[in-house]
Amino acid sequence: MRYFDAKFLSSYATASQLPKSKKLEIVFVGRSNVGKSSMLNRLFNRKNLARVSSVPGKTATINFYDVCGVNFVDFPGYGYARVSKSEKKRWSRLIEGYFKGDRLIGLVVLLIDMRHEIGDLDLGMVEFLIDFELPFIVVLTKADKLTKSKRKDMLLKFRADLPCSDQIFIVEFSSKTGEGLERLKGFIEEVCEPE
């Protein structure tokens, strides 16, 4: 798959604006400031295709990218405290509207910051994905910011705290070093180009 050929398609602020799903979709979800845009830019081998913001909660739309005929769908980060209640409700309706629509979802990539224990919102997302029987993997971001021993401890903690963890693929990832990139591509390509 030629990730460098990725093209931005469009952004949508409400569920009613979302186009019908006609192509396979790879979905990226996670808390605000988890590093989704940085990960997508690393994946696409482009510096600024996905906009990186130093202000958490800045991305308020679902952004669609085309990669060789597959839609890569970048969700707004959830859980940022300084966003208004009305904005949180809009995000919630947008996300719910997407997942409850008739979408051709090949894989959901759930990003969680490896430096912190799994929170209620991330656990809620895992349970949602399990309940809706959506195929997903967990990508632990910012792995380069931890020592080897701390990483080992955190990985064990995630395995203990994640429901059905023995059935969940976990990728340790760093946008800075590229660690985990090939493994992530492998999961995506397995879905996009089944043998």
What does it look like?
The protein has helices at residues 36-44, 85-100, 120-131, 148-161, 181-192; strands spanning 7-12, 25-30, 62-67, 70-74, 105-113, 136-141, 170-172. With 195 residues, the chain is α/β, with parallel strands linked by helices. A seven-stranded mixed beta sheet has the order 1-3-4-2-5-6-7, sandwiched between helices. α3 links the parallel β5 (105-113) and β6 (136-141). The longest helix is centred in the middle third of the chain and has 16 residues, at 85-100. It is globular and about 45 Å long.
Oligomeric state of shown chains: single chain
**Number of folding domains?**
1
- Rg of Cα set: 16 Å
Strand order of the largest sheet: 1-3-4-2-5-6-7
**CATH-wise, what's the superfamily?**
P-loop containing nucleotide triphosphate hydrolases
Question: What share of residues is helical?
Answer: 25-40%
Mean pLDDT figure: 89
The number of helical segments is 5
Low-confidence stretches: none
Q: Strand pairing plus helix content: what structural class?
A: alpha/beta
Overall body shape: globular
Strand content: 15-25%
Number of strands: 7
Major beta-sheet overview: 7 strands, mixed
**Euclidean distance between termini CA atoms:** 14 Å
Q: State the CATH class.
A: Alpha Beta
